[in-house]
Amino acid sequence: MSAPVQDPSQPIEPFLKKVLGSLDSCYRSATTGQAQFTNVEAYALQFGKQLKPASSVIINGKPVLPLADTIKLEFQKKWLATPLTQHQLNSYDCHLIPGSGVFVIQLSGKVRFDESGRTRLGETADMVSEQTSRPVRPLWGSWFGFDLNMVVDEFVLSNDENEVINSYNYRITYKPQDSVIDI
Amino acid sequence: PFELQQPIFFQDQDIQQVATNFITNYINLWDSNRQGLMVLYQAESQFSMQIDSAHPHTLEVINDLRNGPSGTDFGYYLPLSRNLTKVSSIKSRLNRVGRGPEQIYKMFTQLPKTRHELVNKPLLYSMECLRLPQLNAIMVTLHGSFEEVAAPDNLEALNSSIGGPKGRMSHHNRNKKVALSSKSFDRTLVVIPGPNGSMIVATDLLLVRPFSKILAWNDPTNK
Fold first, then answer.
1. Which chain A residues have a beta carbon less than 8 Å from that of B134?
2. What is the Cα–Cα distance from A175 to A177, expressed in whole angstroms?
C-alpha cells in the first residue's frame, strides 16, 4: 500500500469548530442584546446544520427518535430547549476509511452550561421577572467533559457547510458535582 | 429536554449480542495477549491513539500510592499521541496512524499493559453501538477506565522521544521511570463482518484522558 502524500485531516478541525460553534450560538447578541436571527426557527435550524436529515443521533446513550419530523429537526428542537452552552475542543483524531468515502472522527473536550435558569431564548420559569433592556450575561457553571463520535462524508473536505454528518454520538463523560444541569 | 440518559445503547438486538461478545473478548485480549487481537486487523485497518490531558476530571486521584500527588503522567502515550489539535507537522500526523497489522501491533506494544474491569464492574463502563449502513458495519464506542499494570513491552518510541533533539529536558528524563496509574478512556471501533463469520476492525480510535472516579452515566443517588 503506497503512503498517502497528502494529509486529508487538515480541514477537519475548522469543520469541528463550526459544528460545536453552531451548538453554542446565542439568539441574542452578547453586546447589544439584539436578536441575531430573524426568528426562533432560523435560530434552531442552525444547530448542527451539518447533520443529514436522517442521521443517527445519540445523546448520552439515548437515540433521538423522529416523531413528526426528521431526526435532525427533532434534535434541533430539543437542543433549543437546553441552556446555553460553551464547547471547547481539546482533542480530535480521525480516519478516512479506504473505499468508503467517510471519515470516522473522535473528538473530546469540555462543555459548560448557563446555570442562570434561562433558556437559550432568554426566558426563565420565574413568574415575575425583572424587565431589563441590558444584555443578560450567562452564568457559566463548571466544565463537563464530553466525547463525540461522528461519521462524516469525505465531501466535508470541499464543503463543510453541507449536510455531511451521518451519525452523531454525543456522550457526557464527566459531570461536575456542583452542577444541576442535565440535558 | 433529551430523554434520561442511559449507560448503554444498542441500536437493535442483533447488535447487542454481537457487540457485547465482541467487546468483552476484545478487552480481555487487550489486557492479556494483544498479539491475539491481530487476526482482527487487515491491511487497510487503521489504529491511532490521542491524549486529552485537559479533559475535566476529579482532582482527588492522589490515593494512587505509586503515583503520588504528582498528577497524571502521560509519558508512555505522548510519543504516539495523535491529538490533531496539537500535532501540526504533516509527517507526524501521518506517521501516528498505524496501518495494517504489523504497524498496529507495534503501536500496541508501545502502550502500557492494562487491566479493565469490564466483567467485574460493568457499571464503570458505558457503551454505544450503532449501525453504519454505508459500510455495512457497526460502530462500537466504549467509555470507561483502566489500570496500568506494567510498562509497555516496547520502549523504542519513548526512548527516542526523550533522547531526541527536541527534548528540552532530555537530561532529566533519560532515566526517569514513568509512573503507572489509572486512566479514563473512550475507544471507538468500526467493525465490519468478514468472511465465515469473522470480524474485521476497520478503524480503531483510542482516546486516553486523566482518570476520573465520577461517572457521568451513573446516577450518583443509586451508587
1. 100-102, 151, 166
2. 6
Q: Which residues pair with residue B46 across a beta bridge?
A: B99, B203
Most B CBs within 10 Å, among A147, A179, A181, to test the B interface: A147
DSSP B26-39: HHHHHHH-GGGGGG
In this structure, what is the dihedral angle of CA atoms B85, B90, B95, B98, given to the nearest 10 degrees?
60
CB B72 within 8 A of CB B78: no
Residue A13: name the closest of B194, B85, B211 by CA. B85
**Residue B5 and residue A63: Cβ atoms within 8 Å?**
no
Measured CA to CA in angstroms, residue B6 lies from A52, B119, B197, B218 at distances of: 24, 19, 30, 8
Query: For B128-147, how does the pLDDT look when each residue is reduced to its tens digit (9 = 90+)?
Result: 999 998 888 999 999 999 99
Specify the pairing of strand B8-10 against strand B113-115.
Answer: unpaired
Is ipTM over 0.90?
no
- pTM for this structure? 0.89
